[in-house]
Design goal:
about 120 residues; mainly alpha
Length: about 120
């Protein structure tokens, strides 16, 4: 990597490992891009508790469901809003998130990572 990524102290080793492999600079070095494809990703330690067959059969309820500001039909509008936020400068984009915006994500990753 060009720059060292600093991970939060609360992020487990498996989550860090997965992110490092997803962020590999060279596409051929990224997890899931080789012969093993998605199976390589699914075998990563971060997902050791994931019941992939149950996911395929849609028998698992999503552990995290983002809140849509406009209800069920607002998903497309929310996606456009995210794109607009990505175009904002870093300071403005960071200010647009509430302080607890990523708490549900932290809880989700901790449940997979065993932290």
């Amino acid at each position: 990597m060009l720059h060292e990524v600093r991970y939060p102290k609360t992020m487990g080793a498996n989550a860090q490992s997965l992110l490092e492999q997803l962020l590999a600079t060279q596409p051929e070095e990224r997890i899931g891009s080789g012969k093993g494809g998605a199976d390589e990703l699914k075998r990563h330690g971060f997902y050791k508790k994931m019941a992939w067959h149950a996911v395929l059969l849609k028998k698992i309820e999503a552990p995290y469901k983002p809140k849509s500001s406009a209800g069920g039909e607002g998903a497309a509008e929310d996606a456009e809003e995210v794109i607009d936020d990505e175009e904002a400068d870093e300071e403005g984009a960071a200010a647009s998130f509430p302080p607890d915006a990523f708490e549900a994500f932290r809880e989700l990753t901790a449940s997979f990572d065993g932290a």
